[in-house]
Specification:
By secondary structure, the protein is of the alpha+beta class. It contains 15 helices and eight strands. The longest helix is centred in the last third of the chain and has 39 residues.
Length: 512
Amino acid sequence: MAKSTRETERKYEAPSADDTSWLPDLTGVDGIRSVVKQGVQDLDAVYFDTDDLRLAAGSATLRRRSGGSDAGWHLKLPGSGDTREEVQAPPSDELPDELRDLTLSRTRGAELRPVVRIRSRRDTRLLLDAEGTPLAELTVDAVRADSPLAGTARAAWTEMEVELAEGADPSVLDAVDKALRKQGIDRARHPSKLARALEETAAGAPRLPDARVERVKPGSAGEQVLAYVDKQVHALVDLDPAVRRGVPDSVHRMRVACRRLRSVLRSYRSVLDREVTDPVRAELQWLGGELGAERDHEVLLERLDSGIGALPRELVLGPVRARLRVWHVTESSAARQRSLDALNSPRYLTLLDSLAALTAQPPLRRKAARKPRKVMTKAITKEYDRLAGRMARALALRPGKDADAALHQARKAAKKTRYATEPARASLGKPAKRFGKRIKAVQQVLGDHQDSVVARDTLRGLALAAQAAGEPGFTWGLLYGREQAVARERERELPMVWAAASEPGPRKALKP
């Protein structure tokens, strides 16, 4: 069973591993009271990647290491700043299936094979506070690297790492960094040993995810739209491992990335050829739908649970929470499996290939080369006009099922309009951001209304199940009535929110 940890570290150039007299005394730096040597270890790691180095291109590394206290398989995934996530599995001859699955969004099913072997002689020191609690670990590595991709080429260097101890204040890294820089010790040029080994053994460099076959005109509408597309594709790829491991909120964030991609490919058809993008949009809709069951269940469970919690105890009659738990276990298991089945399907890998091709060879249309302001404003206006039409229809209907369906369609149009403003912020600036916020306010009211519609359907089912089991249905009916009241309140609120959001319209609101 693999385990996951977070590591926060900084790498530095180091002049020598044999003679460490260059290393400054860090005692007294930001609470460090002693520096304790831990001895020397020999580490031997084989790094795995695809032939075209897709893991390295996605800022991930996979290795099988012997020696040291954590021998085994290590998959490192990018995080924010100096932090990365490391997923470890015990030593084995074959790559564990769990780790292979966590690489799929980057490898897209391509074969993994050894690309570099790195052997290090590691000299370790612990930086301790006054109570003897570790604040950080400092290591000096004498590194030797060779690659089967580069024949007999070899490389050797010395580097230093300072890794934050679990639970320690990150400020200690800043203080140590300052002390090291005063001694002329600079940060490493390469983000990882693998990156340096690939370069210095001449094994090759990974193709960056945003490297394009054809040049995009700087400052153009195409450049801005593609920058947004790249960002969402990267988000989808990066979130895949988190979704597989059930990290909280990861399904929601991955689903939002799908929606944003679908929306931008639709809104900016004048920039990207729809003959290429429409099939990609259809597959993104499929993926979002498969993830939707799990996410919708998360939202609904939170809403129902908080609704029960808000009731006075004397109004909770019968085994209400027990029945909710049964419903949760039954529904969540199927929804979770649906998400995993989608991520493990050939259809998903094909979608990832299509997204990679889209970013590498974007199907640019003639308007992609134009200045962005006019192109972006027109795209946002078209989405807004569609939203305005749906709002007019929904607001004209009396409360009921037809109105609920119309409001749901308006909600989806509001999301598309809001998402259309996001790639435009680079050229339209604050007006696009402000207009997006106005539309978001409408979306939130419509969203709460739709959540109430879904909650009422579920509450009715729970009430029927309780009745069949001879349990009181009072509490379920009370919750149903409260959700109905929420829906009516949102319906009364909506015209005012829409009026505030729609005046002035985008043609005026987006002017500088």
